[in-house]
Write a structure and sequence with these properties.
- This protein has helices at residues 2-20, 39-50, 62-65, 112-121, 130-138, 141-151, 158-169, 178-183, 192-203, 239-242, 274-286, 292-302; strands spanning 80-81, 85-86, 220-222, 250-252.
- The protein is 37% helix and 3% strand.
- It has two domains: 2-24 and 33-169, Cytochrome Bc1 Complex, Chain D, domain 2; 178-305, Cytochrome Bc1 Complex, Chain D, domain 2 (Orthogonal Bundle), CATH 1.10.760.10.
- It is globular, with a radius of gyration of 21 Å.
- By secondary structure, it is mostly helical.
- The protein is built from twelve helices and four strands; from the N terminus they run H-H-H-E-E-H-H-H-H-H-H-E-H-E-H-H.
- Helix 4 (112-121) crosses helix 7 and helix 9 crosses helix 12.
- It binds heme C (2 copies).
């Protein structure tokens, strides 16, 4: 795994120098297509991502809350978990999440692999245990054969499960947006309004936080720098991880890639529209009140960040066997 990851990094760095000469020098860089080094593992991870049998109810999969037909999110204010429980926080997109410094709004998981174990055992999400999820998978002959071919052993464990899911998630990048084409030198890729929006985004200081290839995900920042943010959410942000008071209300800066698809916005899902989110960001983070025209320009730019969505054949999940523990959809 580690060796392969390094392999990807090296490949990207080499590709980086190859196109560096033609790419515009901007605080945002074009997204590169995913390089798949182990297609069997990615395919297995895709099945697991779509498999509701990793949940206690047998009904909730990763895709329930990170719907790949809807920008990798659920488009709900906060997510719905086991037993229709109201979740505490907005579901961030899984698209391009491999590019982030850490996972979750407060960064409590360092890697995608570490993250992937969380929701299965979270009582408010999939409400299972790792042991029970492994029992289910181990009882399904189709999975046993596939784990054997990918990992060389038919003994399934949570480490292999999360490693396969992470390999699939690493392929969920969205290159070729209009903005990427402009970054790569195509002057016609943006219209006048979108370009004006980008200039305003850059010159007013949004790029201080929303930068890099994912237009975010590079740091933790305070929500409400100039003016405090009012919310009923109890999420305290980065301080939940570091224990430091100065990290209170610091959140991972979300990626703005595909932001047109990932409404509603902010960790509490309180902003319904992009216009609202941009207005709040300008005022709270930069002390700037934008005109309606300016907000429209920035929104037009943000919509150029929608790239090619992952497209693949729907995975067919191997059927349960007579030994598979039955799902418990209404278990408390
Ligand atoms: C019930 C809804 C739900 C399910 C099911 C679910 N997630 Fe999530 N996911 C969320 C929410 C909500 C968050 C944000 C939690 C937080 O930051 O505290 C999140 C965060 C994430 C993140 C971090 C993204 C980022 O930008 O920080 C990744 C990656 C992710 N989930 C992948 C998965 C995978 C893989 C599965 C299946 C094993 C899964 N999720 C199942 C709701 C869900
Ligand atoms: C000081 C750092 C900082 C600056 C400057 C900043 N942002 Fe943000 N932005 C954040 C953080 C942190 C969040 C997440 C806040 C939360 O969820 O509570 C965020 C969230 C967003 C979101 C919602 C994304 C989502 O998926 O929920 C949008 C849209 C956005 N910012 C746009 C902008 C625009 C446009 C500007 C310039 C007017 C800007 N930001 C300036 C740090 C910043």
């Amino acid at each position: 795994m580690r060796v392969k990851l390094i392999g990807i990094t090296v490949a990207l760095a080499v590709a980086g120098t190859a196109w560096a000469a033609t790419v515009r020098d901007e605080p945002i860089q074009p997204l590169q297509p995913a390089k798949v080094t182990n297609p069997g593992k990615v395919e297995l991870g895709k099945k697991l991502f779509f498999d509701p049998r990793l949940s206690r109810s047998g009904f909730i999969s990763c895709n329930s809350c990170h719907n790949l037909s809807m920008g990798g999110s659920d488009n709900l204010k906060t997510s719905i978990g086991h037993n229709w429980q109201e979740g505490p926080i907005n579901s961030p997109t899984v698209l391009n999440s491999s590019l982030a410094v850490a996972q979750f709004w407060d960064g409590r998981a360092a890697t995608l692999k570490e993250q992937a174990g969380g929701p299965i055992a979270n009582p408010g999400e999939m409400a299972f245990t790792h042991d029970l999820a492994i029992d289910v998978l181990q009882s399904i002959p189709g999975y046993v054969a596939e784990f054997k071919s990918v990992f060389g052993s038919s003994r399934i464990d949570i480490d292999k499960v999360t490693s396969a899911i992470a390999a699939f998630e690493e392929t969920l990048v969205t290159p070729n947006s209009a903005f990427d084409k402009w970054l790569q030198g195509d002057d016609k890729a943006l219209n006048a309004r979108e370009l004006a929006g980008y200039k305003l985004f850059k010159e007013s200081g949004c790029v201080a936080c929303h930068n890099g290839p994912a237009v975010g995900g590079t740091s933790f920042q305070k929500m409400g720098v100039v003016e405090p943010y009012k919310t009923t959410s109890t999420a305290e942000g980065r301080s939940a991880v570091t224990g430091k008071d100065e990290d209170r209300f610091n959140f991972k800066v979300p990626t703005l890639r595909n932001v047109e698809l990932t409404y509603p916005y902010f960790h509490d899902g309180a902003a319904q529209t992009l216009e609202e989110a941009v207005e709040i960001m300008g005022r709270l983070q930069l002390g700037r009140t934008y005109s309606k025209q300016e907000i429209g320009d920035i929104v037009a730019f943000l919509k150029t960040l929608t790239g090619d969505q992952p497209s693949f054949i729907m995975p067919l999940l191997p059927p349960s066997s007579n030994d598979t523990p039955p799902p418990q959809p209404f278990a408390k």
